[in-house]
């Protein structure tokens, strides 16, 4: 007991090693993806990461602060993956298809199950998770607005991007809930085809 107290006192006096904190944070997100949001408490996470709870407290502060940074990193990962999918796609239709292909990949399902669990938790505690809620739509919105090109009316671009985000997230939630890939993919193809149909006249109208 005394040994643990001495270790805690020693840790409290040390500055936080930010590289080590980043490594622990990524490992904690991996743990959360595998085990779910409900298991994010000091002891299970510390055990899985092979560190003491004191080490986690030293690097993250309170349990609530640890949850916040885990959520932030999860959001960053999700956005980075979808941004990579959007990449230099020529228009919104291609960008939306790339995002759907990426997010509907079964290899990503565990991460997105956690994402939706987090979303629900954040809606129940909006003050605690204000940054997550503020940026979880805004990140995608910016990318999808830009994918429509500088000549698109800003109000139209925002409206269309909102529709794309809501539709893709709704389809993904349906897919994760039911596992009915054929039905959901058929609906996704119908939606993506409408975007491609709208984009086609603009491409055809370009000077050759």
Automatic annotation (TrEMBL):
Keywords: DNA-binding. Residues 18-78 form the HTH tetR-type domain. Gene3D superfamilies: Tetracycline Repressor, domain 2. GO terms for molecular function: DNA-binding transcription factor activity; transcription cis-regulatory region binding. Residues 41-60 bind DNA. It comes from the Bacteria. This is TetR family transcriptional regulator. It comes from Phytohabitans suffuscus. The lineage of its organism: Bacteria, Bacillati, Actinomycetota, Actinomycetes, Micromonosporales.
């Amino acid at each position: 007991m005394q040994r643990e107290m001495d270790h805690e006192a020693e840790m409290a006096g040390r500055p936080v090693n930010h590289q080590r904190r980043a490594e622990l944070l990524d490992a904690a997100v991996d743990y959360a993806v595998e085990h779910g949001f409900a298991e994010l408490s000091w002891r299970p996470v510390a055990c899985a990461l092979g560190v003491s709870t004191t080490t986690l407290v030293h690097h993250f502060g309170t349990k609530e602060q640890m949850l916040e940074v885990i959520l932030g990193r999860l959001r960053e990962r999700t956005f980075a993956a979808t941004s990579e999918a959007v990449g230099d796609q020529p228009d919104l239709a291609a960008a939306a298809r790339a995002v759907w292909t990426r997010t509907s990949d079964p290899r990503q399902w565990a991460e997105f199950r956690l994402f939706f669990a987090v979303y629900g938790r954040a809606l129940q505690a909006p003050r605690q998770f204000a940054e997550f809620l503020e940026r979880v739509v805004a990140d995608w919105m910016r990318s999808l607005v830009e994918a429509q090109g500088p000549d698109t009316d800003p109000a139209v671009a925002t409206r269309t991007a909102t529709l794309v985000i809501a539709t893709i997230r709704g389809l993904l939630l349906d897919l994760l809930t039911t596992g009915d890939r054929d039905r959901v993919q058929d609906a996704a193809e119908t939606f993506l085809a409408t975007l491609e149909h709208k984009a086609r006249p603009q491409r055809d109208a370009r000077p050759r």
